[in-house]
Amino acid sequence: MTQTTQPPSPPALRLRGITKRFPGVVANDSVDLTVDAGEVLALLGENGAGKSTLISILYGLYQPDEGTVELRGQPVRVTSPAQALRLGIGLVPQHPLLVARHTVAENLALGGGSGLFPARGVAGRVRELSGKYGLEVNPQARVSDLSPGEKQRVEIVRALMRGAQVLILDEPTSVLTPQEADALFRVMRELKADGRSLIFISHKLDEVLAVADRVTVLRRGKVVGGRNTAGATREDLAEMMVGRSVDFTRKRTDSAKSETPLLTVRNLTALGARGLPALRGVSFDLHEGEVLGVAGIAGNGQSELVEVLAGLHASAGELTLAGQLLTGNAEERFRGGVAHIPEDRIHSGTVPTMTVAENLALRDYARAPLARGLARDLAATDTRARQDVEHYAVATPSIHTPSRLLSGGNIQKLILARELNGSPKLILAVHPTYGLDIGATDQVHRVLLERTEGGAGVLLVSEDLDELLSLSDRIGVMVGGELRGPFPVAEVTRESLGMIMGGAHPTVVAGADQGVVA
Amino acid sequence: MDNVFVEALVRALAVGTPLLLASLGAILNERGGVVNLGVEGMMAVGALAAFAVAVAPGGNLWVAVLAAMAAGALLASLHAFATVTLRANQFVSGLALALLGTGAAGLLGKRYEGAPLFNKVPDWNLAGFVISPFTVFALLLAAALAFYLNSTRSGLTLRSVGENPAAADVLGVNVGRVRYAAVLAGGALAGIAGAFLTLSYRASWADNTTAGLGWIAVALVIFVGWRPLRAILGALFFGVLYYLQFRLQGNSPIPTEVFSAMPFVLVLVVLALAGLRGQQGDAPAGLGRAYVRGER
Amino acid sequence: MRFTALSAPSAARAAWVTLAAVVVALLLCALIFFFYGVSPGTVYGTMLRGTLGDSTGLAEVARRTIPLLLIGSGLALAFRAQFFNIGAEGQLLLGAVFAAGTGLFVPLPGPLLLPAMFIMGAVGGGLWAGIAAWLRRLNVNEILSTLMLNYIAVAVVTYLIAGPWKGKDVRGYIYTDLIPERGFLSVVPGTQVHWPTLVLGVAGALALQWVLSRSTFGYALRVVGENPGAARYAGLSAGRVATTVALITGGMAGLAGAGEVAGIHHRLLEAGQISLGYGFTAVIVAWLARGNPALCLITAPVMAIILAGGDLLKIDLNMPFRVVDVFSGVILLCLISSEVFVRNRVTWGNGQAKDNTGSKANG
Question: Which chain A residues are within 8 Å of B154, Cβ to Cβ?
Fold first, then answer.
C-alpha cells in the first residue's frame, strides 16, 4: 500500500481504478471514488455513463476486471450481493426486489430469521428501526398492497437490519412525489447523522443539490469531475455531466395548439389488473396541434388511460377522435390514426428476435403494399425499411439485424418510424425518452413537436416533470384514477404539480381546466 | 349401508394415496418454482425399483422404498440439470422425463412381468379401517409439508425462490441449490408413490402400472391451488371417482371404456373450472421460468 | 459453468449442437441397454442393418416417415407459436375414426370416397386439437389437456371397435369391417408405403414452411410466439393464432390417421395398432427441425429409423416396444438441454461471479 497523504481515518468506502469491460464497450474506466462515514455522495451521470455497472460491482453482481474495493482501509472482494450485505454494503434498488405475495415481515425474515416461525421474530426489530429513523412500515402488510414509497422503506429497513454501513440508493426518487422524496431525504439525513455513508444515484440535479454533500460525475465510464455541493448550481453540475453547457429553458416557444378539439374523452372508467377501478370518470379534450402532458406517480391510472385510448384495455365512457367515435381493437385504432409509443419498448414495442425490417412492418404487415392477399411482399417490406432507417437515422448494421442488438435509442427511433408512418392524428407517447442519451432525447422531442405543427395531437405521459414542463401546452395529473386539470403550463410549477401528484386538491390553481396558454 | 360407505372410503383412500404422495412432491418443487410434468415417469421407475428390490432374495421392504426414492430422485436430477443448470423449457423437459421414465421402467421391468410378490407391505387395521401404512404416511406428510412451507425458515426460503428468485438471490439464498433440492425431493416422493403401487396396492409389476396416475397428480396440484392440506381432499375426490369406476364397471349398461376415460375427462373439467375461477393466479409467480442472475 | 450470450448464433452452430445432442442421447440410451442386458452394439447394429440395410427395411422406414412428416411439420408450426401440442397421438386416432367412419358408413361414389376420408380425417384431428385450444382460453395448459385427450381418444377408439362399430364377420377380434375397396390407397408394390399420403406430407411440409416464412399469418404467428407483449400491443389476437395453429396441427395429425386407415389397415382397429407412437415421436421430429416444417423432410425419416428399429428390436432381440419411448425421452431431453449451447458461449470454472448481460452494458 502506498498511502501518502491520508486523513487520520481511512474513508468508509474507497474504489481504486475500477475497470469493467463488456464486449465492445468499457463500462467503467479506472474509476476512483471515496465516501466518508456520515457523508452523502451523489453519483451523477447520464444513462449509459456507467453508474449501474459501478453499483453492480459494489454490490457483488459483477467482478471488476481491474481495481480494488476498500472498506475502512481494508481491501475486500465482493463476490455476491449476500457477501456485500455481510460486509455492510446495502442496496436500495430502483425496482424493489421483494416477494409481492409475502408479508413485509416474511420478506424481512428471508435469508435470516429463526428456524421456526421466522416472520414472528422480526417485528420488534422493525419497530425499533421505524422509531429511530422515521421509517414507517407495517410488518403484517402484504407487499403487493404497498405503495412504491412503502416498498422502498421496506428495502431500507432490510438493509439496516443487515447492518449496512454503506447504503446505496439507486434512483430512489423516480417513483416518489416531490413531497415523498422530501420525506426520504429526511430519513437519509438521519442515517447520515448516525454515521452511515450513503451513495445517492440520481440525474435530478435539484435533488442532488438538496441532499448530497459531495458529487462525483461519471461520463462514458470515466470520472470526469467531483466537487462539494455547497455553492454549486444546476448548470455547473449539468455541464459536468453532459460535457457542454445545457440550456434549461423551454424547448417550445410557439405552440401549434388550435381551438379545434381532436380527441374528446368523457367520463372514462376502467378496471385495473386486480379488478379494482383504475380510471374513475376521466374527461378532457385534446386539441389539434397540442401536446397534453400527463403527470402522476406510477400506478395512478396513466397506463390504463393510454391502453384504453390505444384499444388495449376495456373501458366505459365516450371517446371521439376528430368527431368520430373511437372504437375497435389496437389494429383498427392505429389505422384510424392512433399511434402508440409504448412504455416498454423491449417487451411490447418490438419483437427482439425479429429483424429491423420485420419490426418496422409490425403495424401493417398484412396490408398493401407490404402484403398481397395472404402473402407478404418481402421486397416491399425491405424497401420501406431502408427508407425508414435512413429517414430516422436508425443506427443498425443492416435492416436484417435482429432488433435486440440495437441500443435503446435506436430501438426507440425504430418505433417512432413505424408509428409515425401513417401520419397519425393522435400520438400516445409514454416515457418516450426514458433511458435515452441527450442526443436521442432531442431527436424524439423534435419529431413529436414537428408532428404537432402538422395538426397532430400528442398525449405525453412522463415521470420527468422537466420534460413535461418543457414540451406541453397543458398538463394534467393522474391521481387515484382521476385526472386533475389539465392546467395551462404557465400556471403550474414543479412544486404545484408535486402537490397535486401527492393528492392535494388543486383549488389553489386559478383558471384550471379550460385555460389557454398565450 | 354403513359398510358400503366404509368400503368406499377405504378404497378411495387407497387409490388416492399415490395421487396424494405424487402431488405433494409436485407441490414441493412447484412452490420452489420448477414444474415437473415427469411425475408419471418418476412414479414408474420408483415402482420398478421398489419391486425389483422387494423380490430379490432377502428383499427388505424398507430398502425397497429407499430404492424407489432414489430412482425417482435420480430421474428428477436429469430434470433439475436440464432446467436449472441448462435452463431448458421445464414443460418439455418434464414430458421427456415422462417418456424416458415409463419407457425405461417398461424395458428394464420386462423380466419382472408376472413375478409374484410374497412380502407385500402388510396393511394396518385401525379400528376397522384396513389401511396401508403408505396412506397413513401420505396423510401425515401433507400436514408436515403444510407446516414446513408456512412456518419454517427453510419453507419460507423455498417459497421465496418460487415467487421471486432474484429477491432470494440477493439475500444470499443459493437459488440453484434450493431448486435442485426441491426437484429431487419431488422425485423421491413420486418414487414412493410408485413403490406403493407395486409393494402394496397391486403387489405386482406390470408395464404401465402407473396408468396415467402421474398426470392426474400433476393436474391435481393446480386444482388444489398448490396447498398440501387441500391435496388430501383432491386426492380423495379422484379416489372416489376411481372407486365408482371400479364398482360400476360391468354392473351397468354403460361400456367399460367410458369409465376408463372418466378420470381424464374429469381432469379436463377440473382444470377448466380452476381456469374459470382464475386459480392460475395462485401459482407461484416464478413458476416455470429459469432463473438467470441479472435478467428480469 | 458460465454462459455468455452470443449476439448472432449461426445456423452452423445450431446444426453442430443438435448433432452433438443426438450423439449424447444415443450414448445415454446405450447405457440403458447395457443395464437391460444387451450389448449396445448389438442394438444399434440390429437397428441399422434392419432399416437401412435392405429394401424391406427402407420400405418400413418410408411407411413410418409418412405420419411423422405430416404430424411433425404441423407441430413445428405449433411450437413456433408456443402452442405445445403433445396430443397428436389422440388427434391421429380421431382422424382415423372419422376417416374409417366415412369409409364404412357414407355411401360415396368411387373417386369421391378417398378425398372425403382425408377431409373428414383432418376435421376429426382438428376438432380434437380444437378442444385443447378452447381450453387454453380458460387458462388450461395445453400440454396437460392434449395429453388427457390422448387417453380419451384411446377410449373412444376402443369403445367404437368393441361396441357399435364392431365388425359383423370378425368373431372374437375387436375391429371394424373393412372399408370398401375404392377407399384403399395405392401403395408401392410389395410394401405398405402408401405413396399418395407421402406426397401429401411433402407438399404439406413445404406449404407450412411457406406459411411460416412468407404469409401474413406466419408473421402473426411468430410475433405471438416470440413476444406475446408485442402481439397484444399490435392488436394481434394470440387466442385466434393459437386456435388456428391448433386446427392446422390437429388437421395434419388427422390426415396422418386417415392415411394409416386408407393406406394400411383399411379398417379401424386398436389404438396401439393404428399409431405406433407417432404422436410423441413427431414431437421430436419437430424439435429436431427447430421449428422449421421443411426441415422435417430430413428429421422425419431419421426418427422413422428409430421407430422401425424399435420394431426390429422387438422381433429380433425380444425387447419390449417401450424401447422407443426410451429413445424419444432421451433424445428430447438432450435436444432441449442443448438449446442453451446454441445461444451461448460456455466457459468453465467458478472463480468469477456470473454475468449474463452479454454485449449489453448499461450505466
Answer: 115
As a CATH number, domain A13-242 is 3.40.50.300
Helix (H) or strand (E) holding A17: strand A13-22
Question: Per DSSP, which regions of chain B are E strands?
Answer: 124-126, 129-131
pTM of the complete model beyond 0.80: yes
Q: Do A48 and C352 touch (CB under 8 A)?
A: no
Residue A258: C-alpha distances to residues A448, A467, C110 (Å): 16, 22, 74
Nearest by CB: C323 against B103, B272, B276: B103
Higher pLDDT: C9 or A398? It is A398
Over chain B, what is the mean pLDDT?
91
Handedness of CA B230, B231, B237, B240 (dihedral sign): negative
Tell me the pLDDT tens digit for each residue of A260-300: 889 999 999 998 876 778 899 999 999 999 999 999 877 78
Using DSSP's 3-state secondary structure scheme, residue C190 falls into coil
* Distance of residue B25 Cα from the nearest chain A Cα, in angstroms: 22
Q: What percentage of chain A exceeds 70 in pLDDT?
A: 92
- In whole angstroms, give the CA distance from residue A374 to residue A357: 19
User: What structural domains and CATH numbers belong to chain B?
Assistant: 2-282 (1.10.3470)
Rounded average pLDDT over A209-215: 92
| Per-residue pLDDT tens digits for A140-175 | 999 988 888 889 999 999 999 988 999 999 888 877
The residues that bridge with A375 in the sheet, in sequence order, are: A372, C215
**Domain at A251-337+424-518: CATH architecture:** 3-Layer(aba) Sandwich (3.40)
β-bridge mates for residue A26, sequence order: A21
Task: Judge whether A285 and A310 are in contact, CB under 8 Å.
Answer: no
Q: 3-class DSSP state for residue B58?
A: coil
Q: Tell me which residue in C151, C337, C355 faces B88 most closely, judged by beta carbons.
A: C337
Question: Does pLDDT of A508 surpass 70?
Answer: no
Q: Do B93 and C337 touch (CB under 8 A)?
A: yes
Does C332 contact chain B (CB < 8 Å)?
yes
What pLDDT is recorded for position C355? 40
Q: Give C309's contacts (C-beta < 8 A, 6+ positions apart).
A: C46, C47, C48, C50, C51
- Each domain of chain A, given as residue ranges in start order, spans 13-242, 251-337+424-518, 353-422
Cα separation of B146 and B139, whole Å?
A: 11
ipTM field: 0.92
State phi, psi for A277 to the nearest 5 degrees: -60, 130
Q: What is the mean pLDDT of residues A196-213?
A: 87
Mean pLDDT of chain C: 90
Interface contact flag, A82 B170, Cβ < 8 Å: yes
Count the alpha carbons within 13 Å of B218 in the hemisphere toward its beta carbon. Answer: 28
Instruction: Please check the confidence at residue C68 and state whether its pLDDT lies above 50.
Output: yes
The reply to whether domains A13-242 and A251-337+424-518 share a CATH topology is yes
- Strand stretches in chain C, DSSP E: 2-5, 344-347
